[in-house]
Specification:
Layout: E1 4-6, E2 15-20, H1 24-34, E3 42-45, E4 56-61, H2 65-75, E5 81-86
Parallel strand pairs: 1-5
Antiparallel strand pairs: 2-4, 2-5, 3-4
Length: 87
Amino acid sequence: MNNIENSTEKSAQNLYVFVVFNGTMDAINFEECIQNNGFSGRLIPVPFEISAHCGMCWMEEIKNQSRLEEFIEKQGLSYKKIHVMEY
C-alpha cells in the first residue's frame, strides 16, 4: 500500500509521520503490534490538518519513517494513509 502524502518540504526537525486508520480497531491493533518493536511514537487524536477517519492516528518521529513503513508492510497492518507534516 503506497498511501503516503508529504504536505511539506520543511526542515526534518519539525516533521512527523502520521498513520491514519480506517477505524478504531485498526488503531488499537496497530498500537498493540508496534509497542514492543522499538518505535517511539504513540496514538494521538488526528490533527485537524488531516481529514479524520476514525479520530486516532499514530504519530512517529520522521527519522523512523522508512523503518515504520517497512514494519507496517511486513506485519500487514491495516491503515488508511500515511501523512508527513509539521506538528
